[in-house]
Design a protein that fits this description.
This protein is an alpha/beta fold. 38% of the residues lie in helices and 21% in strands. The strands form 4 sheets. Strands 12-13-14-11-10-15-16 form a 7-stranded mixed sheet, sandwiched between helices. Strands 7-6-5-8-9-17 form a 6-stranded mixed sheet, with helices on both faces. It has a 3-stranded antiparallel sheet with strand order 3-4-18, with no helix packed on it. Strand 13, helix 12 and strand 14 form a beta-alpha-beta unit. Belongs to the aldehyde dehydrogenase family.
Length: 469
């Protein structure tokens, strides 16, 4: 198997970027810290490769199927490296790799449909689809492989080439993935570049990039959109979330407690569409708090390579500081930690799984995206009050409603201001569905056929009817 150093990026040996194991807080490897000026040649090569890649749909299908096979073959190495640099339990890393292979297969077999327009005029009008050119895919550290594939699989299937930039916190597994895929894809169809800022900003602003697809925070998303506007590149932005779970008064607390807990704490809470706030009827609020707190107190927290670990560390020191800050702010103004509430002693970026109660509704841990293992549970007295609070932030990625009467729960879910609403579960997506945020949580659509068409532009051909002779 090729090593990460096989990634094809031109230029002399660059400066190096230290990569920290979040379970120890110590560097364990390094990646190239590429200079922004190197992007000119990278993008130029991606554009040259585009001309051949876009012209043969059958070859693209074959290559993407082979790419899925290659990912599965390299699954052990990819999963272990992903856990080492990201921190998540190894089982979750294996699931991320499996999802990546499945996504490649899904898009390999998805093709745009030509559409005939019949409007009564004496012409045949046909809508065909053309690729855009080089695509910039800028990926965060929480799901570096899965989110990369969510961007490059539809882009490649549509006939585009991709320049992929992972987070400087998690560059290694992405570089290894690039090396694995280089064995089955043509040269320069997918190029991985790693480095600190301003590398990502320069990539988003590069005049040779025709589509920028980004996942990350709302402020950075705004900056990416502004940078891409200079060249009028298309943007797809999947931004922050502060998903609310609304529990109805007929909910079976014991029956849903495990699902609700893991909807909030999977990947140490570092999921854009995780449950980040729970609204429970005042009558059962204490029962909900205790059910979640009992799980938080007893769940196994540790190094992701330990097979007994269910929750790993926060990925990086700045994010750990953010989690500590919002938790301290809440406790300082009257909140109580029913479980956790502090950083764990010892090495690494570990924070105790935390359930907060008595939280003021205007506390940042409620109104902002905490992105860590902290969950506030807030009481409500009537459903309108709960929905007003659930919809009362600038975020609109996802939300969920939990109850026994499914018709009633669906009617309540229909009132959530978000892109995806779940009933009695949360943060589960199929490959064939659209994924898009409302309000500040995103621009554009990913997933399913919508993700494919987001990487294409319509091309209309008008041909007159055959004249009678």
């Amino acid at each position: 198997m090729p090593t990460p150093e096989a990634a094809r990026v031109p230029g002399p040996r660059a400066a190096r970027l230290a990569v920290v194991d979040p379970a120890t807080g110590e560097p364990f490897d390094e990646a190239p810290d590429r200079r922004p000026e190197e992007l000119d040649e990278v993008v130029a090569r991606a554009r040259r490769a585009w001309h051949g890649w876009r012209s043969d749909p059958a070859a693209r299908t074959t290559a993407l199927r082979a790419a899925a096979d290659a990912v599965e073959t390299a699954g052990d190495a990819l999963a272990r490296l992903l856990t080492r640099e990201q921190g998540k339990p190894l089982a979750e890393s294996y699931a991320e790799i499996a999802r990546t292979a499945a996504r490649l297969r899904y898009f390999a077999d998805l093709a745009p449909r030509t559409h005939r327009i019949d409007d009564g005029r004496p012409v045949h009008s046909e809508v065909r689809w053309r690729s855009l050119g080089p695509v910039a895919a800028i990926v965060p550290w929480n799901f570096p492989i899965q989110l990369a594939a969510a961007k490059f699989a539809p882009a490649l299937a549509a006939g585009n080439t991709v320049v992929l930039k992972p987070s400087p916190h998690t560059p290694l597994a992405t570089r290894l993935l690039g090396s694995v895929l280089a064995t089955v894809l043509p040269d320069d169809v997918l190029t991985v570049v790693t480095g600190r800022e301003p590398l990502g900003a320069r990539l988003a602003a590069h005049p040779g990039i025709r589509h920028v697809t980004f996942t990350g925070s709302v402020p950075t998303g705004r900056a990416v959109a502004g940078a891409a506007a200079a060249s009028l590149a298309r943007v797809t932005l999947e931004l922050g979330g502060n998903d609310a779970a609304v529990l109805l008064d007929d909910v079976d607390v014991d029956g849903i407690a495990d699902r609700l807990f893991w909807a909030a704490f999977r990947n140490c809470g570092q999921v854009c569409m995780a449950v980040k706030r729970v609204y429970a009827p005042a009558r059962i609020h204490a029962e909900v708090v205790e059910a979640l707190a009992q799980r938080a107190r007893t769940v196994a927290v540790g190094c992701g390579l330990d097979p007994d670990t269910r929750i790993g560390p926060v990925n990086n020191a700045p994010q750990l500081a953010r989690v500590e800050q919002v938790t301290r702010q809440a406790l300082a103004v009257g909140a109580r930690a029913a479980a956790g509430g502090r950083r764990l002693d010892g090495a690494g970026y570990f924070f105790a799984p935390t359930i907060l109660t008595d939280v003021p509704p205007d506390s940042p841990v409620v109104t902002e995206e905490q992105f860590g293992p902290v969950l506030p549970v807030l009481p409500y007295r009537n459903l309108d009050e709960a929905l007003t609070a659930a919809n009362g932030t600038g975020f609109g990625l996802g939300g969920s409603v939990w109850g026994t009467d499914l018709d009633r729960a669906e009617a309540v879910a229909d009132r959530l201001e978000c892109g995806t609403a779940w009933i009695n579960h949360h943060a589960e997506l199929s490959l064939g569905q659209p994924f898009a945020g409302a309000k500040d949580s995103g621009v554009g659509v990913a997933g399913g056929p919508w993700g494919l068409y987001g990487n294409l532009r319509p091309f209309v051909v008008h041909r007159p009817w055959e004249e009678e002779t």
